[in-house]
UniProtKB/TrEMBL annotation:
InterPro entries: Perm_prefix_1 (IPR047928). The chain crosses the membrane at residues 73-95, 107-126, 133-153, 173-189, 196-211, 244-262. The keyword Transport does not apply. This is Uncharacterized protein.
Amino acid sequence: MDKADRYLNRILRGTFLTGKEKAEWEAEMRTHINCSVEELEEEGLGREDALERTLRQFGDPGMLRRDLTRQTYGISMDIILQVSALLWAAFLFLYLQSQFRLYDSRLVLPLIPLTLQAAVLFMLTTRNRADRFGLLGAVLPYILLHVCLAIGIPEAVRWYDAVMNGYTPDWRSYQLFLSMMFLWGLVLLKGTKNTGVAALPLFLAFLYKGFDLCRSLNLHLFSALDRGVNSASRHEVLSHLEGVSIRLFALAVFLAVAHGYLQQQKSRPAGASRA
């Protein structure tokens, strides 16, 4: 691997671009480098000196990587990861507070930074303005839910329990919630043609249930250490595990449907789509 290869690898490493995008960027940058080296060689420089000067003129790989990701995602990848790290720290802080009952646990405050973190990380799947609007639309149902809980609407707590937990008696609301998120994802897919953005509503449903499972496991382990195995606690863990499995299955089905839809759109003749 020569200096040019190492230089390009430093630029493209950790950009979260697709393999195709990386190949296209690498080919374009390599062409510019080769042209510059050839021009300098014609002026009398040796191959190594020409390559060294060309790479210096190209600039710092870190700066180029930030410019590249800014062009791709609309925002620097460094900012995406930094904001995500701050939201993760906020989630851990609020989660630890909830364990000591420092606020009303019904407000599910740890899930707010977790929701925002997922949306920020899913920025790495975006490519244009439509994707970013779609990302906002993907988290909108969850934002409305948290607003209703924060305001203290009486029905909000019951509705949250019904749609987020499979073990509640309100099974129809539970089914309706997943169906609505599935359909909302299809609407986002049609508008953005981006599987990552469209899958976010169902991914958040999976993430919320995973949070409930982790919290339940935590309580179950402390209960087992303190008073021995509790059948009610164990049943709650199994119920959460069932909910996680159902949401994961719904997400997998959605991804398969989305992949088939996009493949059909790509294979459709241009004239047929205009018609």
